[in-house]
Structures are given as C-alpha cells and as structure tokens.
Amino acid sequence: MSAAAPPKKLNRIGLDIVPYRGAKTTLCAGCGHNSISERIVEVFFELGIEPWRVAKLSGIGCSSKTPAYFLGQAHGFNSVHGRAPAVSTGALLANRNLIGIVVTGDGDTASIGIGQFVHMLRRNVPLTYVIENNGVYGLTKGQFSATADLGSKQKSGTVNELPPIDCCLMAIELGATLVARSFSGDKRQLSTILKACISHRGLAVVDVISPCVTFNDHEGSTKSYAFVKDHEIALQELDYIPFFAEIELEMADGQVQEITLHDGSRLRLRKLGRDYDPHDKLGAIAALHEANQKQEVLTGILYVEEGKPTLHELLHLVDEPLVSLPLEKLRPGPEALAMVMEELR
Amino acid sequence: MNDFSIQVATVNGSGSQTANNVLMRSIFQMGVPVSGKNLFPSNIAGLPTWFTIRANKDGWIGRKKEIDFLVAMNPETAREDVMNLDPGAAVVYDEPLRLDQVRNDLHFYPVPFDKLVVPVCPEARLRKLVRNMIYDGVVAHLLGIDLEEMRKALYKQFGPRKAKAADLNWNAILAGKRYAEENLEKTDPFAIERMEKTAGKIIIDGNAAAALGCIFAGCTVVTWYPITPSSSLIESMIGYLKRLRTDKETGKATYAVLQAEDELAAVGMVIGAAWAGARAMTSTSGPGISLMSEFVGLGYYAEVPAVIFDVQRVGPSTGLPTRTMQGDLLSNAVLSHGDTRHPMLFPSSPAECFQMAMDAFDLAEMFQTPVFVMTDLDLGMNNWMADPFEYPTRPFNRGKVLTAEDLDRIQEFARYRDVDGDGIAYRTLPGTNHPKAAYFTRGSGHNERAQYTEREDDYINNMDRLWRKFETLRKHVPLPEIVENDRAQVGLICCGTSRYAVEESRDQLLREKKLETSYLRLKAYPFTQELEDFIARHDRVYVVDQNRDAQLLALMRLDLPAELLGKLRSVRYYGGLPLDARTVTDEIVFQEGL
Questions:
Q1: Residue A181 in contact with residue A168, Cβ under 8 Å?
Q2: CB neighbours of B418 closer than 8 A, spacing ≥ 6?
Q3: B434–A331: do the CB atoms touch at under 8 Å?
Q4: B66: part of which helix (H) or strand (E)?
Q5: A 39-58 residues inside an 8 A Cβ radius of B
Q6: To pair with B240 at 20 to 30 A between CA atoms, which of A308, B2, B406, B488?
Q7: Which residues of B touch A87 (CB under 8 A)?
Q8: What is the separation, in whole angstroms, between the first and last Cα of chain B?
Q9: B53-87 pLDDT, tens per residue?
Q10: Sheet holding A236-241: strands in order across?
Q11: Given strand A127-133, what is the order of strands in its sheet?
C-alpha cells in the first residue's frame, strides 16, 4: 500500500499543471529561455486557459525550439527563420478564436525577419510576440546578433562596433499596442507582463533579455545575468488581477495606475522612482532612448494603447472563425455563377 | 473572309485598350471565333504597345505569326511595323505618317485622325483618348463589322454608369465610319461575315477565371504581393469576393485578403492559414516563386496545404515582365532545397483556370502539400473567348482531418503515420478540443509522432512515405487530353497555352505535308501512365515547350522509363510572344525532313 498522492493543485477550469507542460528542454542548463518557458507554463495554468485554444509558433533558433517545451496540448509550429510573423498572421486570420503566442529570438526578429516583424506591427495582429533576446546566435555558436550593444564583447574578445536595434522602440513606433521589456531572471515581473499580454486585445510585444549562458554570459557582455541585474531599472511594480478574481483589492493611491484589459482583467502599475506614463508614446520613446544612452535596461510595461482596431477588425471578418464556415457560406450559389457568366457574354 | 489577324500599334497609356476590346468584342458578337492579345511594355505610359486580334472561322485562335491588317497609330514604330508585313496586307494609318511611301505592295488607308477628333471631342485634353476610338469606326467600315454590334460592345464596355463617356466615344466611332465611307475605297480582301460560332460563349481573361474558381472552391485566406502578370488575378478576386462572399446577415467578410510585404510573407501566411485549416492561396510570378522557395519546402516536408498560382512570365531574373513563357515548369517541380516534389496543374483555357482552381484546393488538402497552378501571361492577362463555367457539383474534399470525435474513437494519433498505406497521414487542426489533438509542426527532422529526430531510419522512413504519397497523387491528378490517330507514327505533347499553336499545327501538318499526328495535352504533373502509353504507341514524339531549355521534356527525362526517352524530340520557342502554329509546324517539318 502506498501513501495517497498529495492532491494536485487545480486551476479554475479544473486542470492540473501537466497539460501545460511540454517536452523536456534540450537547451543549455541555465539558459534564460528555459525560465521563460516555465513562466509561460505557469501563466497559462494560472489563467486557466484551455491549452487546445492556444497556437504556439516560432521561427528558427534556440528560442524557437522552446514552444516544444511548454503547452504540450497546444498545436505548435516551429516554422522558418524569421518568418513566424507571417505564419502566425495566417493562422490567426484563419481562426480568430486561437490564442496566439509566438516565441522568437533576436536573430529572427531583428535580422532575418525584421521585415516581417515591422509589418506585423503595422497590422496589429492580435497575439503575444515574445522575443528571447540574448544578443547572440546560440545555435551557430556565438556570433553577434543585431541587438548586441555597441561595445559588447564576444567571448573571443571581439567588440561589437555596430549600433543595436531596439525591438521595443520599433514596436512602439510602428503599431504594437502593448510593448514591454523584461528579464528572464525576474519571474514575477515576467509572469505579470505575460498575463497582461494574453488579456490584451491586439499585438503585444515583449522583449525579454534572456542571457545565453554558453556564449554571452561573460565579463564585457551587456546581455549577461550580472550586467542585466546591475543595469535593470524597473519602471513599475506590476500587479495583475484576473477577471475571475474573487477578491476585490483596495483602491490604489496616486502612485498607482490601473489599466483594464480587454478580457476584464486589470493591470496595476505602481510607479517606481520616476514618473512614467505608458500611454504616452513619445514619452516612452524618449525614455528608451535615454536609457539606451545610459546603458540602462528599462523593464516593465513600456507602452499600452487600447481600442486600436486589430487586423481582424480592419478586414471586417465575420465573427465566426473562417475555418468553421460551412460550404453554404463559402460557395456562392448557382444563381451567382449564372449572373457572373451573363455579365461576361 | 473570317480568317485574318489585325494588329493595332499604339502608344502605351493612350486609352487604346478600350478601342481594342470593343473591336474584338464586336467580332465576337458577330459569331466569329476571335482572340485578342495585348503586347504591352513594362511601362505606364509612353512606350509602344501592340494589340493583336485574330478572327478565324475554324476556331484557331492562337497567335498568328503574320499580320494581315495593321492599324498604325504609333509614329515611333509605324515604319518598322509596315516593313514587317507580308505583301497584300492592309494598313490603316495616321495620315501625316505617310506610310504609303514606304512600300507599294500593300493596301493603304490614310485617315486624318487629328482633324476628325476635333469636332467630336470639344475637350482638348480628352482627344488623345477619343482619337483611338475613331479607328474602330474606320475598321468597322473596311471589314464590314455591323455597327450595331460595335455600339453594343462599346456600351457594355463602359457600363451604365459611364454612359456619357460612352456617348462621346460612340460619336468618335461614327466619325471614323463616316470618313471611311466617304473617302476610302476598299481594295483588300479581308472581311468579317456573320457566323454562329460564338453563341453562348463568354469573354474573360484567365486571371479572372482563376479568381472565380478560387471563390467557388471556398477559399477564405488570400495573401499576395503585387507582380505582373499575376496582380489582376487577386484584383479580380477582391472585386468578386465583395459581391459574392459578403455575409448576407452581417455584411461582414467570409474571407480575408491581405497584401503582404513580400512574397515570402504572402506564402508564409498561406502556410499558416492552411495549417490552421483554411483554404488559403496566393498568386505570383517567377520572381515571387523564387522568394517562396523556402516556405514551399517547409510545406512539402511539414505537409501543409497551399495553393499557389504561378502566372508565368519571361525569366530569368526580372526578365521580360510583360511577356509570356512556360519558364517555371522544371524549377517548380522540385522547388526548394533537399529532395522535394510538387504537383502542378496546367490549365489551358479560362474554363480550366476555373476548374483547376477548385481541383488545386482539393488536391492540396487531400495531399497536405503545396500545389502549383501553372498559368502564364498569355492565358492570365489576355481576353479569351470561352465556354461558360459549369457550376461545381462536388463538395469540397478537405482531406484526412481528425475531429475531436474521431480522436475519441482511436487509440493513438500520430501525425505522420501512414495508417492507410497511401502515404497520406492524418492531421488535426489547431483549436481542436481534445487532449490528443495537438502535435508539433516543424521543418526539422521528425518521426511519425512529429517529434524531433535526426535518426537515419526515421528520416528515411519519412522521405519514403512522402514519395509514396506522391505516387498516390498520380491517381488523383487530372488526366491528359488525348487525341489518338491510328494512322499516326508521330505524337505531339504539350501543356497549357501551347495547345492553341499545337492543335492548329496538327491541322497545318496534315493539310500541307500529309503528316498524321496524335496529340496529348498534359493537365498535371506528376505524369500518369497515360503519358507513358502514349509515347510507347508512337515512333517519334515531339514535346513542345515555351522555354529555351525544353523544361517539360526535361521533366519527362527525370521521371519516365529510359526506354521511352529515345523517342522524345523537342520543339522550343522562347521569344516571349504567345506560341504560334507556324513556328511549331516549321520545326516539325524540319525535324521530320519533309
């Protein structure tokens, strides 16, 4: 007789955490990406989202392998280098009920797929787009990526002499409606941001500094654990109150800004130190430029814009997912063809 | 009588397209089989452009090499255009060009267009456009085209909303007709006489026909990047979708059309949408195909449906963007790195564009793979006389898709397992509410459970299954059209728009050289047994290609048994114009030593 197993913790839809987990990671021990996968598992579990409603997509690279490591009961698509934006745009056009989460790296987003990234921004495709940003190409053994900071050193000592691309700046400028930056080492902040992204209606971009323990965690790197810990400046202390929460939190004081998200969940931002309004586009851009000058890593909710039409709305799509439409809605009747033929006679 | 070609030489952007379409349609309405081909430059305005109309009582509507009746409106090309004519041809020309001084073996009809346009068009800025309508009136008189038919064609072209513009143009036609009546004495033999050979037919370009096919195939996601000669396929589709596929109850769209940032994104969106279960398509031409290559390889290996129209134009590289070629046959068959094979359909007419669009969606979903529909600029952008399209009676074939209920019934779902022995595995769609539904799609090595693998046996098993699937495909592609002639030792093979020249060439070979031929027109790749049998039955088989490298023949060399290859001969044309019968006939006569 064995002792009864301890009761499993269940979420609001009665599932334990197992269906939210994925295959065992094959990334390096200590890789920042693994922490991000853990946060994704945790967040979907805590939000009580059925895994089958999620589509998880990626490009190519270390980061893009990670959809295999979370939400084993969600359809996944590890696509083509830099092209996750196109594939996910297509998938979400086909089925607007899918909850899209895209995981890419800095190679995907800031180099080979930068064109797709910026056009996805313009379209406000409703999904969560995570950039696992470590400043290097891991799978090909440590070349600089386009997000490597000026002056950052490779393991071999080579210094990066090209200016970095700031994906958050681009995202704010070109149309993403929720833009955040976080650090894979900051569990609480990252989880809260991811929850806000999933509750948001529109394109949410999160740039997560996620150190590469093998190729970019040394002295002289600006994407190492030590450097980011030393240089991170959190803009806000974040609280996420899900729409299904029973406890009503007490009203906040003047230092707290509350944002009600599309699904009714609320995001509370308690200002830390500086006065920062994430609704202020130009202010956000200025703050990022300033932080980049000072080699600071600004984290938190950088920008939010509510109510902007998503791609689905811009295209006036029917409410029902296109994939669910029956033949009668898709094939016009014989009279329609006869009418067209008559016009061409 | 009812057997000649007309060429109108104008300047691009001068509004001649309307005049030319009205002329073509008038002949069509008189019951005479006709075709119109626009030979235009890659330019918005200013460069020379030619429109060729062929009227033929026997129904030969391919391009005719010789021009019988020239309308010379472009001073830049007029002399060369006249020098290229065979003796006996007729020339209507702008009087100041004084073309009658160039040659004395032609029938010349000078017309003072600038003088005639002033009274009919008081507004000076419109005269450049209206001026071209005058030649319609002149030609109608000289060829005996019923003016009432021309009036109908004109008002149809303009539609009820532009009736005022139509009135203006109608007066221009009348002015031309009146001038010709009073001043020109007909000396050439060319004339149109009423027949009954176009009753019930329609006039449509292949791109619009393909667009309609996609709509009746239930396509829901359309992504594209503009490129000549494919753009009008999507533009037609946008127009028809609004009318035919707006939900009656909500007024919302039952489709999504998205102009992508490039062809990579366009096909990537198609792959994403089809993965999610939509019928998705894109349309492009050679340069776009080159960009799509990586994604097409993913579609093949990860087994995701996609329908890709390739409206072929002249390559390599930018090539001749406004000229036609069957230039992508070989590269599309094996597009992308590694071992790949892709099905292709070869429509030859608007009705086939319509039908094969529907076939392509069925095949793509049945076989979970990208399918190319190989049209070309000639078919896609030119107006064709066509049989009206038949309403599809078959329901969509969505292929092997497991629902949540199906998953309840089965022990295990393995995405890439060959359960039925035909190479086609079962798939599930994202959003299927079942714990067994999910699988991981990847372009990296995968086993039958869709798990990552680099194992030799897993890789080989999967590649062998993909080949088996391709073998199964042979049993489902449209079969070739065969005209068997028991007396023939010679066979002719072609695909797509080559048919018009080849079919007419068979007639020429028989009449002029008493050469009996059989004929096979391919409608699809992979090839089927019918092709092998046809080659085996004949001594010499000519494969007609519209490209330099005999690409269709090369595909046969790749796929057919070695013992058949010795019989194959090649007829190639690669000048960028639609293939003409005379070119085919001359080459076969030469190779046959006749």
A1: yes
A2: B424, B425, B448, B465, B468
A3: no
A4: none
A5: 50-53, 55, 57
A6: A308
A7: 268-269, 271-272, 275
A8: 30
A9: 999 999 999 999 999 999 999 999 999 999 999 99
A10: A236-241, A266-271, A256-260
A11: A232-234, A297-304, A178-183, A203-209, A127-133, A99-105, A54-58, A75-78, B440-442
Amino acid occupying residue A218 = H
Chain A residue numbers touching B209 (CB-CB < 8 A): none
ipTM: 0.96
Q: Which residue is closest to B443 within chain A, CA to CA? A: A79
Cα(B350)–Cα(A170) distance, rounded to whole angstroms?
46
Length of chain A in terms of residues written: 345
B204 → chain A, closest CA residue = A344
Chain A closest-CA separation from residue B477 CA (Å): 22
> What does the block give as tokens for A165?
């691309």
Q: What is the pLDDT of residues A67-121, one digit of tens each?
A: 999 999 999 999 999 999 999 999 999 999 999 999 999 999 999 999 999 999 9
B443 touches chain A (CB under 8 A): yes
CB neighbour list of residue B96: distance below 8 Å, 6 or more residues apart: B112, B114
DSSP H helices in chain A = 32-47, 62-65, 84-94, 106-107, 114-123, 167-174, 187-199, 225-231, 281-293, 311-314, 327-330, 334-344
Q: Which of B201, B241, B391, B415 to mutate to test the interface with A (most CBs of A within 10 A)?
A: B391
Residue-wise pLDDT tens digits, B247-305: 999 999 999 999 999 999 999 999 999 999 999 999 999 999 999 999 999 999 999 99
Tell me the pLDDT band of A252, cut-offs 50, 70 and 90: low
CA–CA dist B562, B144 (Å, integer): 56
pLDDT less than 50: residues of chain B: none
> Nearest 5°: phi and psi at A303?
-155, 135
* A318 to B247: CB separation less than 8 angstroms, yes or no: yes
B395–A contact, CB cutoff 8 A: yes
Chain B, nearest residue to A336 by Cα:
B244
Nearest-angstrom CA–CA distance, B301 and B126? 57
Chain B residues within 8 A of A340 when measuring between CB atoms: 212, 240, 244
**Closest CB to A83 among B245, B257, B264:** B264
Looking only at the bridges linking them, the beta strands covering B280-284 and B481-483 are unpaired
